[in-house]
Amino acid sequence: LQVPRAPSQPAAGSESRRFANKHSKKALKASLTLGILLGMFFVAWLPFFVTNVTQAVCGCVPAGFFDVLTWLGYCNSTMNPIIYPLFMRDFKRAMGKYLPCCRRSGEPRPSAISLSMRNSNSGPRAATSLKNVL
């Protein structure tokens, strides 16, 4: 038995495929970024926690080794500001907008008044639509 298919509109079909393809690329990139961040976190902190449990059970971990593993975990915190701008365009834009060292030469500097109004939840706001957010 064959089930008859309803005729589809080619413009709507290609539009929905393009929309799905765009969002699948965004989802893949977000998954990749999350995987890298979590991977770096586990590589940096898992040895520390395993050694910490071992130290609690047998007390056989040298203090110098424990310190090295602690600093490896601290290095993870220094890697995050490097990883975020590499993989997140919105983070990169925000950094370029507010940090003088990252701003392009043609971009104007935001005023202190506009920053305080934006951060205080007061003042006029542009209407936010789903299209602007995505």
TrEMBL record:
One of its GO terms (molecular function) is G protein-coupled serotonin receptor activity. It is a multi-pass membrane protein. One of its GO terms (biological process) is adenylate cyclase-activating adrenergic receptor signaling pathway. Residues 113-134 are annotated as: Disordered. It is found in: Cell membrane. Residues 1-84 form the G-protein coupled receptors family 1 profile domain. The chain crosses the membrane at residues 27-48, 68-87. Keywords: Cell membrane, Disulfide bond, G-protein coupled receptor, Membrane, Receptor, Transducer, Transmembrane, Transmembrane helix. One of its GO terms (cellular component) is plasma membrane. This is 5HT6R protein. It comes from Cochlearius cochlearius. The gene is Htr6_0.
